[in-house]
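Can't paste images in this forum, so I'm doing it all in text. The chain is below; anyone willing to post the predicted structure tokens underneath?
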Amino acid sequence: MEPEEEREWNAAKVEEMRSKAAQGDLFAEEWRKTFTVIPKLPYNFSYRFTDEDGRESKLQILDWEIGALYWNCYRRHGNNETVALEKVRSKYADGFMKTDLHFFLGTTQQYHFIAPNPWVIIGVFPIPKELQRSLL
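Text version of the structure:
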């Protein structure tokens, strides 16, 4: 978990998106009637790890599932951020570390050619570890 993020979306960016969405579209327009801005996730989540070559990396997790987990835990525990963060940490740090954890990686176009490491985690795939003896 990273330090707290801005709690609200950038108003200028939201307005820009709304104006782009107001433009005509050749396809179904039904989604525009129900479109709402979702609450901004107030924290960044990331993994720090060492790869097989011994290089240390820290990659931000941009998977929607971690955000959904945070908001569900937040609501389930009476809007308590501390408990919600602990539940996310418990699953992503403690729980997933007991598996054969794989990451789906992607890059963001904005930083692709200028950042020293433009990669982000767009999906987390915890494969349960299976002991060979249990396969017999």
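DSSP finds four helices and four strands in the chain. The first helix runs from residue 11 to 21.
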